[in-house]
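Protocol step 4 of 6: structure prediction from sequence.
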Amino acid sequence: MFFNNTDKRYNRFSDHLREKFGVKVYKITLDAGFTCPNRDGTISSDGCVFCDSGGSFSQLYSNKISVTQQLNEGIELSKQKYKAQKFLAYFQAYTNTYKPVEELKQIYSEALGHADVVGINIGTRPDCVEDEKLDLIGELSENYYTWLEFGLQSIHERSLKFINRGHDFKTFVDATERAKSRNINVCAHVILGLPNETRQDMLETAKALADLNIDGVKIHLLCVLQNTQLSKLYFQGKIPIMEEDEYVETVCDFLELLPPSTTIHRVAGNGLKPNMLAPGWLSKKFIVMNKIDNLLEKRNSYQSLKYK
């Protein structure tokens, strides 16, 4: 089974966007000056163990320049480098619903005011989406392609406690259901290779997301960045890191359990290379992606093969 008139055996988000809009669509990552309740003391002051001071932000911009300027620069670069024609405004840094509704409305409206922006992706936490905020985002979805990206990472409570996530799986389920009831697409971020999780544990996360008929999934490997809580444990020899072949096999197993409608936003990421301590093999992201493609072909497998 192939997806979006390509040779891909999974529903890759970039191909889905081209199929939907008829042109290449590229995400422009933005930093709008948000913080996080898991860093400012509301929940914790330590943050998630894997998160560095950039709040998972991986681009050159910062909130020292306006959202409009970030968009203009990012769009111009992406037109030249990737031949993209339309764009999604991706609020990535920290928790991008963690402000009062009126401020959110101004921030989102500024991004959506650009003529070439067709949609918005909002990275946030499932415990930071009160109904009035979802109402606002739901209104945006009437005219724009709108996504909420929740950092779930795992369905297992022991893993959520280990990474100091600050919420449980039930909170994610509740937020997802409330968002989907407003026609907002939901993407779940998942981390493979968390300590003390077996492959079966990871696949239980895939099954739970399938049961929710999740709209999108972004798959990460547990990687160690400098100056994080995780790096301290890594230097103490307490954090095992998945080998490349094991990761590739687990991703393929994971994809087989997801519905065919679920868009796959990422199967491998390399973080900020200068800040990454381990694993070294993840820096060659496209090699990893090719291995995933090759293994699916070797298995004669595809996303949703084992979906029930």
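Step 5 (inspection) to follow. Strands lie at 25-30, 86-91, 117-124, 145-153, 185-192, 216-221, 224-225, 263-266, 276-278.
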